[in-house]
Description:
Layout (H helix, E strand, L loop, with lengths): L5 H12 L9 E5 L13 H9 L5 E5 L8 H14 L5 E5 L7 H7 L7 E5 L23 E5 L5 H9 L6 E4 L11 H8 L8 E4 L21 E5 L23 E5 L15 H17 L5 E5 L14 H13 L5 E4 L6 H8 L24 H7 L3 E2 L19 E2 L8
Parallel strand pairs: 1-2, 2-3, 3-4, 4-5, 5-6, 6-7, 7-8, 8-9, 9-10, 10-11
Antiparallel strand pairs: 12-13
Amino acid sequence: MVAPTTPVIKLHRVLQRTPSLRQHCRCLSIHISDILAARSPHHFDIVNDFARWLTRVRCLSVHGGFEEKFNNPHTWALIRNLVVNMREVEHATISREWFGLYLGPIMRNIEFPKLRELNIHGISHSKKEITILDPKKHRTASFTALSISDYEESPGSTALLIQWPTTLVHFEFGSFYNNPHIMDLPMFQSWLFIHRETLKNINIGYLSRAGSKRLFDATFFPNLESLQLSRWQMERPLQFTAEDANVLGPKVKLFGWDFSIYDQHNEGWDDFGENEESWISELGKAAVARQSSLKTIAIYFGPDHWGAGKKESYPWDRMDSVRDGIMRPNGMDLVYNRPCISREEWLAERRGGTKAESISLSDLNMQEAPESASADESESESDTLVMAEPGFYGRDIRWYFAPVQRPWNISELRG
């Protein structure tokens, strides 16, 4: 939209001629180019008109325009215009294209009165200002779901961000990529403690390598139902301890174990081995011994299949062993995303047969459950909830008004 393309200009003319159409827009996605061609403030004229006209928007996304050399002041002026006029926004996504998206301006300017979900992607670390939360804004923000990814800010700023909303029900923190600061699970546990009575879903990716390897203690969160943690935030080699069982809070029904690596490569074929099988087995046994609320363990594991025929074991056999030996006999289940290669294909490669075709990474993504799911399937899915991924575009509009937490598709999570 900035600089406006020909279709955007045509849309502007239509809305200018026919004001009655403006009330029908519910979702607005704004892309602001961070290249030199978008430096003119006049490029913001049309999108500022949209901000004044489209007052019924509920789902708003602003991507780009934060690069300080070009659009930054104009972008924040636009966002203030959006806040003033779009009073029904419930879901907001703010994401960078290049750099210049800082936490301080977000906490000063994002004040939609009905906001329920805030997704922030691409926070850069500010060298010019220290993030300060106005005492008057402490625990005043209306959103109850917060998702953060590609995040470079400091522990102190992160603590302030978590103190901003009145209550949190859903919290998601994406894996570190370029963040140089030391943060670990005990730190997040202490920051989230002020929301201990309301939190139901927590999803935290891998963090600082130098941080503590202690896991998140869910026993302090009495209403937590879903906890997803990264395997890479744990000791190597992996060994189960009695303290690890504290991921089983009093109401935790779903424990997610994520092996994803947000870097230049996938996780390795051998990353789920004997130690990982033993750890997840001991967690299942602890759930039985404690008579916990645990119903499902969900494992995200997506290695590249090339060279699989040279491997001595099939990792998903280990998962099936835990499922069949411990989980299901005790009324629980273990599920995982679609393997990169089937057992039959792996065996064929082991015998020197034709290599199986590669499955695209998109096949490994969790998809929404089909509307035709049976009642029994829907009931089981209701117990396996996770935070929505940030930055979805081009979906059926009805998706945006569903609850923030979405079920895994059990047909995609095998067991």
